[in-house]
TrEMBL record:
It comes from Streptomyces niveus. Residues 19-116 form the STAS domain. It comes from the Bacteria. Signal peptide: none annotated. This is Anti-sigma factor antagonist. Transmembrane segments: none annotated.
Length: 117
């Protein structure tokens, strides 16, 4: 399966956010596409990102590495990277790896955009 990416800007109580909607599989073959998108957004000055993973069917360690790399990039600019995920099989990966302590994970895009912490 392929990876689909789209971005949009939204405003919330915490300020402007760039939402990256991800669909399909994030694996060793498609993760570079997501990495390029995150790097491009940060290079263009988008430091507060919301990655909407509701449409993600599969996530492997390469995909996790891309997300961690994206988090490091935005934090270098005092930014944030929030995840939107409500699929148990994907959430389980974050719990097993301990990344629930690293990423703020929300159940909706609206919740992630409204978060100010």
């Amino acid at each position: 399966m392929d990876l689909s990416l789209s971005t949009r800007n939204v405003s919330g109580p915490g300020g402007d956010r760039t939402v990256v909607e991800v669909g399909g599989e994030i694996d060793v073959y498609t993760a570079p596409k997501l990495r390029e998108q995150l790097v491009e957004l940060v290079n263009d000055g988008s430091y507060h990102l919301v990655v909407d993973m509701e449409g993600v069917d599969f996530l492997d360690s390469t995909g996790l590495g891309v997300l961690v790399g994206g988090l490091k990039r935005v934090r270098a600019h005092e930014g944030s990277l929030r995840l939107v995920c409500n699929q148990e099989r994907i959430l389980k990966i974050f719990r097993i790896t301990g990344l629930t302590k690293v990423f703020p994970i929300h159940t909706t895009v609206e919740e992630a955009v409204a978060a100010t912490d």
